[in-house]
Amino acid sequence: MPDWQLETYIACLSIHNPEEDKRGRLSMWRSYGDTALVINNTPMITVTDLLKVYSTPVLYMSVEGLTKYLSEITDAILDNREYLEGLGQETLKYYIHHMLLRLAVAIKHPGFKEEKEWRLYYRPNDGISPCMTEKTVVLSGVPQNIFKLRLANEPGNGLHGADMSSLLDRIIIGPTEFPYVKYKAFVSELEGLGVEDADEKVVVSNIPLRSGVKCK
After folding, report:
1. 117-138 b/e (C-beta count within 10 Å ≥ 16 → b)
2. Nearest CA to 210 among 19, 36, 26?
3. Long-range contacts at 149-152 (CB < 8 A, ≥ 24 apart)
4. What percentage of the chain has pLDDT greater than the value 90?
5. pTM metric for this prediction
6. How many CB atoms lie under 10 A from the CB of residue 213?
7. Is 48 helix (H, G, I), strand (E, B) or coil?
8. Cα–Cα distance for residue pair 201/205, rounded to 1 Å
9. Other C-beta atoms within 10 Å of 171: how many?
10. Amino acid 215: pLDDT
11. Coil, strand, or helix at residue 4?
12. 184 pLDDT higher than 70
């Protein structure tokens, strides 16, 4: 399925637990970055086809686990054959197609399970989103097209609670040599965007920074 591989655009998020509000997650600081944006999940859990952007939890599965999962689905189809036959062939093809697409988007090696990842995915070949803007950028020296989701509250377009004030819960600054400098910079940016109580939305992680060790 080259179209699935080349024309599916994905954004990756991680479930944030309340006990991580003041420190973040050390494994994520080490692996991915030095600043975490904690957002509210309203845009991800709203049920709508208008936006054309969909969310799914990552399924951490081995080959054996995937085989078992597909076997269970097959058994469920056989158990409900009479009902499913009543839906018609085209409807069944549609549902199976999207089930397999979701699996292709969501499956990840079980060794990454602690990331607690969710993925947002967008397929412009299946439908154009009114809230997406296509742009050509250069990332790591490679020219490529990306899609940007407008940060706005536009229920008529299927976009709920994605304006900056509603979306952002907090910013956690990871272990760093310059916590105050970063804190002030983020507060200033949020104030410029009209976010209320910006100084309370920026938190410096209380995980100590090891001397001579820089988080990537």
Report:
1. bbbbbbbeeeeebebbeeeeee
2. 26
3. 149/11, 149/53, 149/120
4. 83
5. 0.86
6. 8
7. coil
8. 13
9. 21
10. 53
11. helix
12. yes
